[in-house]
Amino acid sequence: VFVEIRSASNPSMVLETKSALIQRDGDIVSSDGMSDLVFDLNEENYYVAVRHRNHLGVMSLFPVYLSASNPPLIDFTGTSTWGINAQIQLQSGLNALWCGNTNTDNQVIFQGNTNEPNQIFFKVLTDTGNGSLNTNFISKGYQIEDVDLDGETIYQGGNNDTNPVFFNVLSHPGNNLTNSNYIIVEQLP
Question: Could you give the CA distance from residue 6 to residue 14 in angstroms, rounded to a whole number?
């Protein structure tokens, strides 16, 4: 993940960034896999934003006091974030990032220009191991088109990466008419 510290007076101003690791339990730690993230900033209030390679980023709803001696716990799974419907609410009641931003344009689009399924399709079709140009080929590896993060990019067939994009778009609270061409837009300022 990528963590941004933003100005409390101007949340669109990014003051410092760090690459970090997200653990299986959802904790974010420094790139060594153990340490807390420490930023070279004065101890005061800041907005905190989190981004992920193929998810829409989120930011804390209010500025958070950051201190190196007493790092804050910011729980994005249960806390409101900046914007409207900036996170998906899971059946468990926890919040998560909207997945499916396979072309890094800060939107999730199922149908229309710059849609995510096209990215997935062409990743599978142009994989060097896919000599037969099969649309049901499974491309393996750490790839932005791997929407469900299982190490496999699948365009069609079981556990494909297009279905999460489709269902996110259809189920988004702002998509009142359940249009397949609805666009989920990242809510970061």
Answer: 4
Alpha carbon distance 68, 46 (integer Å)? 13
Phi-psi map region of 163: left, alpha, beta (phi>0 left; psi -120 to 50 alpha): alpha
Tokens of 52: 């992920």
* Residues 6+ away with beta carbon under 8 Å from 9: none
Three-state secondary structure of the chain: CEEEEEECCCCCCEEEEEECEECCCCCEECCCCCCCCCCCCCCEEEEEEEEECCEEEEEECCCEEECCCCCCCCCCCCCCECCCCCEEECCCCCEEECECCCCCCCEEECCCCCCHHHHHHHHHHCCCCCCCCCCCCEEECCCCCCCCCCCEEECCCCCCCHHHHHHHHHHCCCCCCCCCCCEEECCCC
Residue 47 identity? Y
Which amino acid makes up residue 129? G
Q: What is the pLDDT of residues 96-151, one digit of tens each?
A: 999 999 999 999 999 999 999 999 999 999 999 999 999 999 999 999 999 999 99
- Give residue-wise pLDDT tens across range 51-107: 999 999 999 999 999 987 877 888 898 878 999 999 999 889 889 999 999 999 999
